[in-house]
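Q: Here's a chain of 171 amino acids. Please give me its 3D structure as tokens.
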Amino acid sequence: MSIIQNNKWLVGVITASLVSSAALWEGTRYYAYYDIAGIPTVCQGYTGKDIVFNKKYSVEECNAFLRKELTTHSNGVLNCITKPLQQHTHDAFTLMAYNIGVSGFCSSRTAKLYNEGRYTEACYAMYKSPSGKPVWSYVKKNGEWEFVQGLYNRRRYEAKMCLGDRDAKLD
């Protein structure tokens, strides 16, 4: 799929809000570690195959990783969204995709609802199913899915960002 004309202005746009939100939720570690799902990670959630353990990454390296990855994930989001996006919604979708992957985001209920023009429902779908059960808030450990409150909190933050109201009351 290609990026629709109304969203081309967003190509390569990485806002301060998106960068600061990613840094807030990912945290920063200058040495590689295994994240909660056992994935090698460094800096602000970077999970590339080129991670070197026992190396101290610099602030500049971490910033470069984050900007590159947010741009990549943003472009992935833009390639699967078929309706015009506002900046705050684009940022929320990119932040979510940075955590769950572009394929996860593009196959999500959120993306499907948004592409149907059901914008508010799409934002709510970032953190809950139609029955109200949390979504995208679980990590597989020892073959079992385990609820992670921090991921649920992040999904709610992303939903508020998507709605354009960080003070929104979510049910």
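Q: Can you summarize the key feature?
A: The CA atoms of residues 68 and 147 lie 29 Å apart.
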